[in-house]
Amino acid sequence: MAYPYGNGRRPKFVKFAPGDRGEGLLDAFYEDPRVFRGKPGKRGQIHAWGLYPHPDEDNLPEYDVMKTMQRMMATQMIYHKQDSPERQFINALKERKRKELAALDLEGRDKRDVIIRIYLVGVNDAQGNPRIWRRLRVSGGIKLSVIQDKVIAPVMGWVRNFHCYFFTQLSDGTMFGPKDSDAVDRFSWQNSIGYDWMPDDKYMLAQLYAKEGDQIGYLYDFGDKWFHEIEIEKIIPQEESDGHIEILDGKGMCPGENMHGSLQYNDFLKELDSASPAKKAEKKREILSCPNYKEFGKPPSLFNPDAFDITQATERLASALSSTNSVRSGAKIYTMPIAPTEEFNDHRSKGLKKGQTIMKNNVDEDHGYWQETVSGGSDKKKESVCASCGKPGGEALKVCGGCRQIMYCSPEHQKAHWTAVHKKQCTRNFLKK
Ligand SMILES: [Zn+2]
Ligand SMILES: [Zn+2]
User: Fold this and answer.
1) How far, in Å, is the centroid of ligand 2 from the Cα of 313?
2) InterPro entries per the record (predicted)?
């Protein structure tokens, strides 16, 4: 007798509930997740757990968002109280990966610094090379959640704790992302493409590469879709590694947040290149009206989309390092104080943990404002870095005795940072209590 589900195909691992005939289910879910391996694209990369069909000539797989969404809507009542085949499959993949990572011998990579280059995919110069990129030095031991929040966002020029994101280990397609993000755009990818991911505050950068030349995928903003790649250019010997974070080099201004993703921004720049002075001024206004240049950042000292202002980027990095980690469950959101958002505020204030408060920012004349949940206490040492140099220190980090919020790797860094930066910050926080 033919198997009643999945058009007669019997899955190797997942179980269907009665009423689900496997309509719209991707082929990958009929496989056994305990041994499954996705098909790489032409650059050898595996994206989104390897779930999607992959034409040989393409680097990215074929995401059929409509099909996946339709299936999700059609089956959500059937799997109201039990795991859907997709969920069963991803849970098994996650469990397998969790064990692999627990058994992985890092061979000291977490103690070694790396030179990485992060660039926007799809925004290219006339020669086809990335037009917007940053090169920096960072410890392999930094947690993914921390490098996203305190390094990648400020160094690239994106707003911290605004849109959702994930990392992809491109050698096997494993996805890592925030555990409880409340970013406005979080649903559009998580529920329709990637299903689920490993918690990024539990894993460090060094667990995602093995050798120089390895690449890690990073997608920022599920609405606009800014695809980045992080290339491991050099792994520095342990005896030359001190864990400090430093921007070495870069090119290109960060696009305006909300400027519709890499491909549209590439077209925007091409038009800008050949635009008349009047049109150039208009396009400049468009970039500079975006949140990362207006409400949450400074306009560049000189407007040139190909220039990289390393001084400004270093300032943003330093300011991020001397702050607590972003609270993902309270990502920045623009709020108008009318009925629907009151409900939203309420939902956020109910979910506040000890010490957390909702901060209002940039309250404007229309009485709208940005709100974000911020932490009042210190971060877990395992998920923190030295506020002065960026070294991930684990239990070795010492909390500032004044504010009890930020941490240092050594008394020397605490002293230097106190004089240069923290004296003002700390007093302010101290007096507030
Ligand atoms: Zn330090
Ligand atoms: Zn302090």
Assistant:
1) 23
2) MM3350-like_sf, Plasmid_pRiA4b_Orf3-like, Znf_MYND
